[in-house]
Amino acid sequence: MTLPRTLSRSEYAPFSRRESRPLAKALALRALAFGSTLLLASPSAPAQPIPLPPLSERAVASGAEVFVRDNIEFSRIRASNVQPFDPAGRGNVLRPIGGGNWDFGIARTELSQLQWVEFLNAFSDVPVPQGRGWSQAVNQLLVGGGAIGRGMGAIGMGSQGRFVWGVTPEGANLPVLGSSWFGAATYCNWLHNGREASIDALLNGAYDLRGIDSTHVGSTVNITRNAGARYWIPTYDEWAVAAFYDPNRNGLGQAGWWPYLDARERSPIPGRPGEGESAAEWAETPNLGEYFSYPVGSYPNSQSPWGLLDTSGSANEVLEGLLYPTDADRTFAGPRSGPFGSAVGVLHIPGWVGAEGALGIGGFTGLRIATYTVPSPAGMMVILAAGWARVSRRSRS
């Protein structure tokens, strides 16, 4: 991985001078606790793509294609006439899964902490209007919310009283946890709008979040993906096709669904990288913080039929849709790391998913971004507008 510049201990001082002495002391102690350096991801030093293992032979045979967009490595999923998998009442997904024609890109790994820090730091000096229904949710998101994991630390303060975040080299590639459905939706909006650091860019783009009431989770129920979205949260169908469906499951050209993640007939063997096949059902110690101690892509031989990594163990992955039509909770899929990783059998494909509040923070949900492969007319207009805005800014500078 090409890392952004590192901050030496002497560079913490300029941040601290703007703060009161107690806060400056707390920040300095926090920084020193992480060692001599923290990485700062920002628009001027963006997080670069994480070098990932090559596609497996099975993924190549499936026709998966790797491409990089916005410094995220995606795998292209193209499958026609997919026969749906029918859970037949064996889970809580009460309908057939994944049928139809598919052509989309999905990230090969979950979002890393370095990528999340880059997102938060882009807004460190952006004021949040108060008194709006969404104000509390946006404030909670931008101060870090529950998505502050091991190896992340505050290294300063922005002009709006929110921390500037750094991440250690060890923590840079850990999956971000606790971002919530709302955090995932705003991240997609940010990417959709060309990484523009504005509240408008957070609240609309892939998802229109302007009608959210932070005190009423039911206000999120009717939010769906906008037409022309360039990035989005995968649906369960998209996630299931990318994780379980194989065009060559039963032989060349004989498609089908694998019963377990990572294209297996059985549950993956838990263990540390290099010894086991997955971090699901595995923990180095009983300490909860150790459940997520492995960087994304640590199990190169455990890939989906399309080359996705970490579908079995890492984080629960937030999904776009509701668990039930009348329920405000959003779904998540995939087992997290640790001894409780597959508590609801999500290593298997009987149609089990979990759920959490759309505006909740904390927990164990991470995010795997999906994207377009051929831009829609609306999406192309956004791309052109974002490009023109960048050109205009450069010409004025």
Short note summarizing the structure:
The protein has helices at 12-16, 21-33, 57-62, 113-121, 135-142, 180-192, 199-203, 236-244, 377-396; strands spanning 6-7, 38-39, 65-69, 72-82, 100-107, 152-157, 163-167, 231-232, 245-246, 256-257, 316-322, 329-333, 354-357, 365-366, 370-371. It has 397 residues and is an alpha+beta fold.
| Overall pLDDT level | 78
> Approximately what portion of the residues adopt beta-strand conformation?
15-25%
Q: What is the β-strand count?
A: 15
Largest sheet composition: 5 strands, antiparallel
Uncertain segments: 1-36, 341-345, 376-397
Output the number of helix runs.
Answer: 9
Structural class category: alpha+beta
Strand order of the largest sheet: 3-4-5-15-8
Quick one: overall form?
Answer: globular
Q: SSE string, helix = H, strand = E?
A: EHHEHEEEHHEEHHEHEEEEEEEH
- What is the CA-based Rg, rounded? 21 Å
Outline the secondary-structure elements:
Blueprint: E1 6-7, H1 12-16, H2 21-33, E2 38-39, H3 57-62, E3 65-69, E4 72-82, E5 100-107, H4 113-121, H5 135-142, E6 152-157, E7 163-167, H6 180-192, H7 199-203, E8 231-232, H8 236-244, E9 245-246, E10 256-257, E11 316-322, E12 329-333, E13 354-357, E14 365-366, E15 370-371, H9 377-396
